[in-house]
Design goal:
The structure is a homotetramer. Chain A is of the alpha+beta class. Chain A has four helices and five strands, in the order βααββββαα. Chain A has one domain: Roll (Thiol Ester Dehydrase, Chain A). The B-D interface holds B 9-11, 26, 29-30, 33, 42-44, 68-69 and D 9-11, 26, 29-30, 33, 42-44, 68-69. Strand 2 of chain B pairs antiparallel with strand 2 of chain C.
Chain lengths: 137, 137, 137, 137
């Protein structure tokens, strides 16, 4: 699957003339929602199903700096999962070089705040998610 | 009344090594909610009364740059008002020098999205607001 | 010219479930740099020429709220100009409806902080800029 | 040492009516620079010494949601260190309850991008840092 692309904006840089490290957490969210939409679980459907996926943890490893006007290619894949929890992996590249790797852990809940097993409720979608590959694998 | 103070954070700077101009709109919100709280209309009371004040317009004039670790003193006052609309004025200073002046226009609505006249419903609070002075006046 | 498109991200919403008003100032910057690049004055060229364009003022009128996953189409045009100062106009639409109109004023400076007249130094680029049209005109 | 306090702003909330998770990374930076300043290594001194401390990794565990107007107390301490790398730990509390725990890893460099051992170059400051305690310890 094609990576999500984030074009670094001027307002995302800081006084060291690089992308401020906090913004990568936002790029992760952008990439995640974009991939989920392309896999058939876009915002509209999640709203309609009352599905929510709070972020439980994030981890981010900064390997190379990026800056204004860089095009960051972000790959998403499932790094690990249990019945109720998914760890997404992220690989971010600029011009083929890895600039950042990251993980985020999510649970899924329905409108009544009850935990939802994606694997049971949306087996097709879940399988498509599991098929995503890390470009480093 | 004492001005609200915003200490510029590193993540608010940009690659020109100055505070990114979009952040002043956020500083305005910080100052406004701080002043309203000190005048007796804090978040808790607004929630309890179901009061909302959407922003209709903003205007911001950048006079001098600021940067990381600057302490911006922000003064709020009522620049103009009709029965349903208030224009807040902002004067931002660092070390006694004006760095930015700004305005924001707000209407006020109750929980049923009906317009509220602050002057009629909260005359004491409204008078305290009107007593705020621009430091440049 | 095709408008710039900003897809509203979840992290740009606020507790009223709408796009926080401060973000529109950032969308303006995104649209401006995108248009300038398409008109032949991209980041690389500006860097090479030592050209900077500080923001002097911004004005933003919020007409309709937007929210997560909305696609905001942003049109840029030159609203007024003197030899040293340009006022850009912005019209933001979602599904053909105007949600926000805005202006920003800029001067241009070279690497030595001397004011630059775009019209004299880059007449072709300047003319292309002047040819931009407001969709409301 | 007294914790750093961050008052959650409206613009830091999202459509779930909670503080957006990316902002905690920013709160970490606020707390870190505030503690370093109180320990005698403020921005002015770091600038004067040409000292920089890029963020290598961050980790953040979200335990309870927070929202607008919450006062987050942030405790900083040294979780681990080698001669060239420091892991700061963060404990964030609201009303005595832990809402978030986090870590960030930093190296230190001088103006010539050479690694600096804080322990060797600033032994007094380093000792004051090591004396910081986690409130959970």
């Amino acid at each position: 699957m094609e990576p999500y692309v984030h074009l670094v904006q001027y307002y995302e840089t800081d006084a060291m003339r690089i992308t401020h490290h906090s913004n990568y957490i936002r790029f992760m969210e952008e990439a995640r929602t974009d991939y989920l939409e392309r896999l058939g679980m876009g915002y509209d459907r999640m709203e309609a199903e009352g599905l929510r996926s709070p972020v439980m943890n994030v981890e981010c490893k900064y390997l190379k700096t990026t800056t204004y006007a860089d095009r960051i290619q972000i790959y998403l894949y499932v790094k690990s999962h249990t019945s109720l929890k998914i760890e997404f992996g992220y690989v971010m590249q600029v011009d083929g070089e890895v600039v950042c790797t990251a993980s985020s852990w999510h649970c899924f809940m329905d409108a009544n705040h009850r935990p939802v097993s994606l694997q049971q409720r949306y087996p097709d979608f879940f399988e498509r998610m599991l098929a995503l590959q890390s470009p480093l694998a």
